[in-house]
Structures are given as C-alpha cells and as structure tokens.
C-alpha cells in the first residue's frame, strides 16, 4: 500500500535557536534539524507537508466515537482511554477536549510549513518545482482549513492565527476571534486549494487532498454555516450560504463520479456496501478524502478492528455497537417503507422480536453490511479479500441456549458491527491499513440535496441522487408524491444520512447543526436506551435542564487554556 507517511516522518519542526557557546551548544542536535539545514530542496518540502498530514490524522482518526453521542450507536468508552460517553456529556473537557490541542498542533505545523515553503519558493526557478510547491501550499492550506472548521464547529469563537507561534508567550497573547471571521478565512483557504490542486492523483500521491476534496469541504462549511444561521433566525445569511454550498457540491456532481461498483447492491449475503469499508477498496473514486493509515508494522495503524470488532474478529473489544434504534431504521426492500418496530424481548419466537432472526429478513442490504444480530454469522473472506468462505460461529447476545457463539465482550446493546471490521488475517487489531473516510460521494449528494431542498424544495435531480444511494441497499425508488414537500423530503435526506453514514462520525454533527437534540430527547423524559432483550443500558437527557442541551451544542473550552491565558473566556453554558 502506498502511504503518505511510509517514507517521510517530519523530524524537528521547531527551529533550533543559535546558541552563544561555540563547539558545544552551537551544534545541530541529532534529533532535530534546523530550518537552515532542512529547507533546501522540494523533497524537504514534501516531507514537511507529510508531517502536516500526520498531525491532521490525530484530529480525525476517531470521529466514529462521536456517533456514541447520537441515538443509533452505543459507545461504552474508547480504546484510547478518553472516557465513557453519553449524548448529554460529550461536550465536557474530560471527553473530547483533547481535540482542541490536536487541531492547534496541526494548524501550527501547517503555518510553519507555509512560511518555510514561501522562503524556499523564492529561491526556486524550475517550473516543475514551482508547480510542486504551489500544490504543497494548497494541500497545507486545505489541512489548516479543516482543522479550523472542526474548532469552530465544536467551540464557536476560537483563537485564529496564520503564522507559526514562537513559544507559549506568543500563544498566551491570543484571544478568541468571532467564528464568522474564522469561517471566511477557512473558505479562503479552501477556495485557494480548489484553484490549485489536481482532481485526481496516482501512484505514491494517492490519498492527498484534491480539488474535489476542497470543493466538498467548502460546500460543507457553507452548509453548516447556513444551518447555524437558520437556527439563529438569520434567513438572508442562511440563504446565501445554502446557495454557495449547492454551487460547491454541484461542481463535484457534474463530474459524474460513480458510486463504488456503480452503486450495485451485490448479493444479499455479501453486499457491495460492506466491501467499500475494507482497505483494499479505500482508493475507490467514491472516496473523496480520507485520513491515511499505513500498516501493519509501520507504527501508523488504525484501531478499527479493536473498536468495531469483537473477540472473534481480530480480538476486538466492541467499544462501539449498533442499537435497536438503528435496526428499526432499515427499510424493507419490498416496499421501501419501514418494517414494524422491533419488540425488545428474550423470546426468540415472538413476532418482530429483536432476538428473532426472522425479524430482520427482507431489509435494506446495507443492514447486513453494517451490523450483526442474533443468530447471524460474520462475513468471512479468503486472503484475496474477495472470496466468501464458510464460517461457523453465530452471534448470540448473552450466549443463550448454551450455544458457542461470537464473544461480544462488553457490548451491551445486543448487536455488534460488521462495517469496518476486517476479515482478513495477519493484521493486528491496532495496526490496520484502513483509511478512515472523511468525505464520500454519497455525503456530497446528500448535502447538495439538503442545500437545494432548503432553497427550492425537492427537484427531480434530488430524487435521482437519493434513489442512486438507495439502490445500493436494493431499495425501491422514493415515492415522489409522498416526499413532494420540503419537510417530507428532508426526512428522506435524514434517513439516508443515518443509514449510509452510520459509524463514520456524521450523526452527532448533523444533530447539532439541525438543533434536533431537544426533539430526539425531549425534556424532561429524555429517552432510555435498551438492549434487544429489554434491559436498560443508559439514560439519555433524562430530567435534563436547558443548560444540558446547550452544552450539547457547544463544547467546554479546556480549563487549562483559560488558566494560562486570561483572554480566553469560557463558553457560557460551561460557566
């Protein structure tokens, strides 16, 4: 596998200061390279930009944990020991507060690289080298942009800077900049990137930021901003950005990029959708931008099998698992409508019982590709990653009836994931090569449909796009009459986002930008999450006050940042 980081590990991004003592202190440390020695060639610039990609990876490598703060996935904690999560508690510093530092590490590194590429460029005359450095600048600005976007999404107004900070003293002079100003700078970086970057790559450059990725994230920033402004009652600003978002996404749609395997559903017992989330298909044109991983034995592996898998699939630990609410969202292939709700019961013969395997028959093929329910077996592949092999162990929640079954470890929800779970041997659970997808073509189509629907309601083009996505689940086309209104068509968009993007870290951000937490978990009752047998797992927003909902929409600024910089003021719900 070609990986951005396999050959290049950026060492010593901090400039080594000259010391006054000759022969002893005025030497280059063996573990660092000064800017004067390092920034000599375009190869140095490529290595430095690869270092920005490396920093970016820590920001986005576990977005799927955010789904645990939605209603369709249970997260019992994290394999990187960041805590146990519930929808009402995710915004506290004790959970994902570390992302503040991750984002700024990537941003500071990007700013350092941009400054030095600018200096190197001034000494370069070869057209090919100038073109390469222009591309590297565009990639770096793209990476800086998506890290700032994550910051304003989670924290609102944040410190903004475009130069490398020289130590803590300079960092402590920064104050929070209005997120509208930061948003404009993000869009400027993405627009620049789109004007320079190529549409596709090949060979060793696979996986780098492209023109398509810049358009897609520009559209996403515009769409999110439009949603935020709509929630604040600023209709004109919302319309402006819905329009801009639609224009960005339309540029990608007009390229006529196909879905994976042309969107064909594949066999019912081995759906194509499942194969899309295996590392041997990670460079399919449907994948617009990913976080890159290289493994095994490169110290750059992902932990998908550990987090999504179980003890019988690469010795995973089931840190994340689907819930019965997700199972209820998979529609029938015969009608395209929802099946009767599952009955949470230990009785396996009961009609519609969640523990009765027959209750899951005839549903969207993406269900079998995504989750495993009682009595079902995993998909098992040969070493070529294509041929389905006989398998043996069934899944039995609670290991009932004395049947030897898949060990579900600590997953309490009654299901385990099939999506993202590797079924090829020889790769450790925390050392996988699977890239994690940050932007896929169906996401672009659905965001475009959302923007256009907000502007003018559903159009024939939007029905076509959603029906293409539904086809991969072997579902019939949408009933155009049923979804003719803006409100009803939005429900169809939301349905596809739930099913198509589950386990990819999108639902949490959708709930927040649509301001749906109070609708999903109404006060004061909230909801209770149960397993398939009807046993309570957790309370969600039960007896919550207004501040609890407010904290879902904006994160707590890490208190340590405020302690060292009095200019950083805490977000109001956390005061």
Automatic annotation (TrEMBL):
Q: What range(s) does the SusD-like N-terminal domain occupy?
A: 61-223
What start and end residues bound the annotated signal peptide? 1-21
Q: Where in the cell is it found?
A: Cell outer membrane
Membrane as a keyword? Answer: yes
Span of domain RagB/SusD: 285-574
Q: Does the keyword section mention Signal?
A: yes
Gene3D superfamilies associated with the record = 1.25.40.390
The record's listing under PROSITE patterns reads: PROKAR_LIPOPROTEIN
Annotated keywords: Cell outer membrane, Membrane, Signal
* UniProt xrefs under Pfam families: SusD-like_3 (PF14322), SusD_RagB (PF07980)
- The main location is membrane
* Membership in a protein family: Belongs to the SusD family.
Q: Name it.
A: RagB/SusD family nutrient uptake outer membrane protein
Organism (species): Fibrella forsythiae
Q: What is the lineage of its organism?
A: Bacteria, Pseudomonadati, Bacteroidota, Cytophagia, Cytophagales
């Amino acid at each position: 596998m070609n990986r951005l980081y396999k050959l290049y590990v950026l060492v010593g991004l901090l400039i080594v200061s000259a010391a006054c003592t000759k022969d002893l202190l005025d030497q280059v440390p063996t573990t660092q390279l000064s800017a004067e020695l390092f920034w000599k060639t375009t190869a140095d610039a490529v290595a430095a930009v690869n270092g920005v990609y490396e920093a970016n990876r820590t920001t986005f490598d576990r977005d799927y944990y955010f789904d645990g703060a939605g209603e369709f996935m249970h997260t019992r904690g994290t394999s990187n020991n960041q805590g146990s999560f519930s929808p009402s508690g995710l915004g506290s510093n004790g959970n994902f507060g570390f992302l503040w530092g991750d984002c700024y590490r990537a941003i500071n590194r990007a700013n350092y690289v941009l400054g030095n590429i600018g200096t190197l460029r001034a000494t370069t005359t070869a057209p090919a080298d100038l073109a390469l450095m222009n591309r590297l600048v565009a990639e770096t600005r793209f990476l800086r942009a998506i890290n700032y976007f994550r910051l304003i999404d989670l924290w609102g107004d944040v410190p903004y800077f475009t130069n490398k900070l020289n130590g803590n003293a300079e960092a402590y002079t920064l104050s929070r900049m209005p997120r509208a100003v930061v948003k404009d700078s993000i869009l400027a970086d993405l627009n620049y990137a789109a004007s320079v970057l190529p549409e596709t790559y090949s060979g060793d450059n696979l996986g780098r930021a492209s023109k398509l990725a810049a358009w897609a994230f520009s559209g996403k920033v515009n769409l999110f901003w439009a949603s935020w402004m709509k929630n604040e009652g600023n209709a004109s600003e919302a319309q402006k950005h819905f329009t801009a978002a639609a224009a960005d996404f339309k540029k990608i749609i007009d390229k006529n990029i196909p879905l994976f395997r042309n969107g064909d559903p594949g066999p019912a017992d081995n759906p194509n959708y499942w194969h899309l989330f295996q590392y041997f298909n990670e460079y399919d044109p449907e994948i617009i931008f990913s976080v890159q991983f290289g493994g095994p034995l490169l110290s750059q592996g992902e932990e998908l099998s550990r987090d999504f898998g179980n003890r019988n699939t690469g010795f995973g630990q089931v840190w994340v698992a689907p819930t019965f609410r997700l199972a209820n969202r998979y529609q029938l292939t015969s009608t395209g409508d929802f099946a009767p709700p599952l009955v949470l019961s230990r009785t396996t013969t009961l009609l519609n019982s969640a523990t009765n395997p027959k209750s899951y028959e005839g549903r969207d093929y993406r269900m079998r590709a995504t989750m495993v329910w009682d009595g079902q077996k995993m998909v098992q592949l040969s070493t070529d990653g294509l041929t389905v092999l006989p398998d043996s162990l069934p899944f039995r929640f609670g290991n009932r009836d004395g049947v030897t079954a898949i060990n579900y470890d600590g997953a309490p929800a009654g299901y385990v994931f099939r999506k993202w779970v590797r079924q090829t041997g020889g790769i450790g659970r925390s050392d996988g090569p699977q890239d994690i997808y940050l932007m896929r073509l169906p996401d672009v189509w659905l965001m475009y449909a959302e923007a256009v629907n907000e502007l003018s309601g559903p159009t024939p083009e939007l029905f076509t796009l959603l029906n293409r996505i539904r086809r991969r689940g072997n579902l019939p086309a949408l009933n155009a009459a049923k979804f003719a209104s803006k409100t009803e068509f939005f429900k169809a968009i939301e349905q596809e986002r739930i099913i198509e993007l589950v386990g990819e870290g999108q639902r949490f951000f959708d709930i927040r930008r649509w301001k749906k937490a109070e609708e999903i978990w109404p006060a004061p009752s909230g909801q209770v999450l149960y397993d398939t047998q009807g046993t309570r797992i957790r309370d969600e927003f039960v007896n919550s006050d207004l501040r609890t909902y407010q904290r879902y929409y904006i994160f707590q600024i890490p208190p340590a940042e405020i302690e060292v910089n009095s200019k950083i003021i805490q977000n109001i719900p956390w005061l």
